[in-house]
Amino acid sequence: MNQSIRGKVVIVTGASSGIGRAIARLFAAEGAKLVLAARSIDKLDRLAGEIGGDPLTLSIDLANPSEVDRMASETIARFGRVDVLMANAGVYVAGDVARGDPNAWDNMIAVNVNSVFRSVRAVLPEMIARGSGDIVVTSSIAGHQAMLMEPAYSGTKHAVQAFVHGVRRQIAPYNVRIGTVAPGTVLNELWGVSDPMEIDRRAGLREGLRSEDVAEACLWMITRPPNVTIRDLVMLPQNQDI
Predict the structure, then answer these.
(1) Which residue out of 27, 105, 117, 153 is catalytically annotated?
(2) Is position 112 within any domain?
(3) For residue 47, what are the domain limits?
(4) Which CATH number covers residue 184?
(5) Does 2 fall in a domain?
(6) pTM, full prediction
(7) What average pLDDT score do residues 85-110 get?
(8) pLDDT of 129 over the 80 cut
(9) How far is C-alpha 70 from the geometric centre of its chain's CA atoms?
């Protein structure tokens, strides 16, 4: 029997834009109790006003380890538990390695890799003690196939894939699930697309996914019956079938 997220406490990182914002809107409509985490408190507050339900908004710099711990502790202080972690925040840096900026890579690794590892670590003890919980990490098709112009980015997503696969086997005995959603091109701010008409045009040409498409896939993953684990959900625009 499928599960519901109504009343569940859900942390969404990177909630101020793109996939995270779409997850927040969809999960709010499904009755979840939301914790919205991102750097821009103004954007989070606007989103909170749109979706209602009195979500907890947290201005968090996920590149800062102490901020990750604060996100978990403030969630527990407010709601008493964490039912779902949507570890979605990410940074995208592409280009030739020979002309790349290692400082930009360091920041990308801090957000795409370190903050994911730390966020998962921060919520697991409570989930394990309760014997219940779901974690979905936003990965990428670049986590399954090293992309020509995205070697550093691909490296961060491969790291996430390996981490999730190892953690999954450790936590399965405690009835806690973890998996990744790995989209191809998503038509949002991370990929430099924000105009609704352009999103509609390119989606109509099957050149990209909408953020809402990914949010719906995430909802489907965590509402599967308890005996079902979705290890990886890879989703591509039809015309990006690499």
Answers:
(1) 153
(2) yes
(3) 9-240
(4) 3.40.50.720
(5) no
(6) 0.95
(7) 96
(8) yes
(9) 18
Position 80 pLDDT exceeds 90? yes
92 catalytic? Reply is no
Q: How many domains does the structure of the chain reveal?
A: 1
Q: What would the 3-class secondary structure string for the chain be?
A: CCCCCCCCEEEEECCCCHHHHHHHHHHHHCCCEEEEEECCHHHHHHHHHHHCCCCEEEECCCCCHHHHHHHHHHHHHHHCCCCEEEECCCCCCCCCHHHCCHHHHHHHHHHHHHHHHHHHHHHHHHHHHHCCEEEEEECCHHHCCCCCCCHHHHHHHHHHHHHHHHHHHHHHHHCEEEEEEEECCECCHHHCCCCHHHHHHHHHCCCCECHHHHHHHHHHHHCCCCCCCCCEEEECCHHHCC
Taken as a whole, the chain contains a residue count of 242
> Residue 242: pLDDT band by 50, 70, 90 thresholds?
low
Q: Does some domain include residue 41?
A: yes
Contact 57, 45 (CB under 8 A): yes
pLDDT band at 189 (very low <50, low <70, confident <90, very high): confident
Rg (CA), the chain: 17
- The verdict on residue 88 lying in a domain is yes
pLDDT of 71 reads 97
